[in-house]
Structure formats: structure tokens, C-alpha cells
Amino acid sequence: MAGLLMKEISMKYEKKLILENLDLEVKHGELLVLLGESGCGKTTLLKIVAGIIQPEKGTIYVDDTEITDLSPQVRQIGYVPQAQVLFPHMKVKQNIAFGLEARKLTKEAIEKKIHWIADLVGISGLLDRYPREISGGQKQRVALARAMAIEPHILLLDEPLSSIDATGREALALTIRRIQKETSTTTLYVTHNGDEARLISDRVAVIYDGKIQQIGKVLDVEQHPRNYLIARILGSPNIWPILYTKKKEKTMLSTQICDIFIQDEVNSKITGIKIPPSIISISKTQIEDPNLVVLKCFVKTMIEKSEDEYRLILDLKDNPSEYIKVDCSRVEYEKYVTENKEIYIYFNHLEVILL
């Protein structure tokens, strides 16, 4: 197993700084998800690690060996780009063998490796087909197999599920995780999808403004995001930025859906609020209580989380451009949700999480 270390990586495009003194470490045998919005420099960073482009500044290490100036061919790094770049005139087994042949292995060794990795990735029945004869998800598995066949020290995956249909996305994500665990391959996995990070990561690193803004286990980052933007990138439910604050007897935080009152002084670093779906209650009638936020809503849709638990997606009557997610039991749903789908929701100001 090998570890990957990036120190003070900087890169510009057309005088615009994409990466700025970025530091990131991927530990031995770890799957680290690099999470960020489109255009934040995720793919650029992968290409720098792979040796496709050179950073303007910074150093890259695999274990104790600096690889910053090494050519891609000698880095022992497997790279799967977002677009499935398979050779169309080659069969699947020839695509997998491409990197192995470049290493001048014997035919017997290459054949053995092809069948080992094809079995591991789940494409043993596709070896004699051409890329045009297989699906998008199967092509992505072939690309993964080709990168893994050389048994890389480091594996780089750039949005590997972006071209996969919804039904195959989770299955492929779990396949990637299984292979990574079985081979103990140190992996840097790039995505803009928080659900992927929750599903497969050992740790998640959130990137914006050219730097790693927060890193840790996904549950820890989700429960304690440093600001509203990190929570938004993670795809946390029910988060809103603070529009402005006002101080009288209490401090009022104004957001797009409601005003929140808190007893404490306003921390200038507070950038938003989070209302966990689990703290929200539902009712048929309006409730009068100064400690509660009460909102009138309409049920947009309902997702069955389990046999006895639902998640409601609600439109806000006074702000139809916004929606809010609420968790409730089957009993509550049957008791409070009327035929016209009109309900009231309420929650305590003090239970709102400040970001």
C-alpha cells in the first residue's frame, strides 16, 4: 500500500487561480472522496497527480518518493477519467491488456491478470465484446478494470458514476468500494454528489476557492459543517443561507423560509441554518406558541424510508419556490395529512442548527 501527499499545489487557467496552496493527504489503503461543485478544480487536481498537467507550484509524494516531475508512465498511478476512453477498435480484453503490454509482461501473465481483474470487476462475460456492444455502466467497469490491472499504487477516479443511469449507480459505487477494500488500493475519488460520499468514503474532503475547506469522516463533516456552503456541497437537507440579522430583545436571523430567534449574541461566522427533518412535527391545525416556528405547507411528494417511516417533501405556502423535508411516522402521516395535502409544520427555534 502507498500513501499520497500533495503540498501547496497551485494552478492557474487564463490568470484565474483554480488551486491555491492546496494541501491534501490520502492515507495508505484509504478511499478519500474529494467533494466539490463543478469548476472548483477537482479534475485539475487529479490530472496533476496523474502527471497529465504540471502544477505551477507544489510537490506530490507517493510515500516518501517525490513524483512531481515524473512522467505519467512511471508513476504507477491508475487514472479513470470522467469520459470512458476505451479503444473502440479493441475488444474488452485488449483494452484491459493495454497497460500490461506496455510493461512487457509475458502473454501468460497478461492473460492471468485479465481474468483476475475481469472477475473482480464483474465483466468476465464481456471480454470478447467491443465497446460499442456494451452499456455505459459496463464501459465504466472496463475502464476501472484497465486502471486496476496494472495494480497501481494510487487509483484516481473522476466522477465515475456520472454517465451511469440511476438504477446502476449504487451497484457500481459498491463494486468500486468492494474492489478498493479487497485490493487495499489508496484511492482518490472525485464527485459533486454528496450521496456518493456517504455511500463509499472513508473520509471526505470538501473543496472550494481552490483549497480543502474541511476534511473528515462524512458523518462528522455533515453533523458539524464549518459553514453553510460546506453543508450545501454535501447536499444536506433543509439548509438556507442567512439573508440578514437584526438585534432587539433577541437576535433574529432572517432566511428565505422564516425568521429564527436566538438568545445568544450573533457570531459573525454564522452563514446559514440547518433544520434537521427529524425535529419537525406536523399538524392539521395551526399552533400558537412563541417558541415555535409554524409554517403552512402542501405535501408535494412522499418517500417511504421504511415500513413505518416516511419522508415528506413539502411546498411552503408563503414561499412556493422553496421546499422542506420532514420525517414522520406512518401513523402521523395517516392522522395529519388530509385529502388536499394541506398541513402545518412546526419546530422549536432552539433546535435549529446554526452553520
Please outline what is shown here.
This protein has 355 residues and is an alpha+beta fold. Helices cover 26% and strands 35% of the residues.
Plain-language structure description:
- With 355 residues, this protein is an alpha+beta fold.
- The protein folds into two domains: 4-234, P-loop containing nucleotide triphosphate hydrolases (Rossmann fold, 3-Layer(aba) Sandwich); 272-354, RNA polymerase II/Efflux pump adaptor protein, barrel-sandwich hybrid domain (OB fold (Dihydrolipoamide Acetyltransferase, E2P), Beta Barrel).
- It is built from nine helices and 21 strands.
- The chain has a six-stranded mixed sheet with strand order 6-7-8-3-9-10, sandwiched between helices. A five-stranded antiparallel sheet has the order 16-20-17-18-19. Strands 2-1-4-5 form a four-stranded antiparallel sheet, covered by helices on one side.
- Helix 2 (92-102) packs across helix 3 (107-121), helix 2 (92-102) packs parallel to helix 4 and helix 3 (107-121) packs across helix 4.
- The model has no long low-confidence stretch (mean pLDDT 92).
Helices, strands, pairings?
Layout: E1 4-13, E2 16-26, E3 31-35, H1 42-50, E4 57-62, E5 65-66, E6 77-80, H2 92-102, H3 107-121, H4 136-149, E7 154-158, H5 166-183, E8 186-191, H6 194-200, E9 203-208, E10 211-216, H7 218-223, H8 228-234, E11 239-241, E12 244-247, E13 251-254, E14 259-262, E15 272-274, E16 281-283, E17 292-304, E18 309-316, E19 319-329, H9 330-336, E20 342-348, E21 353-354
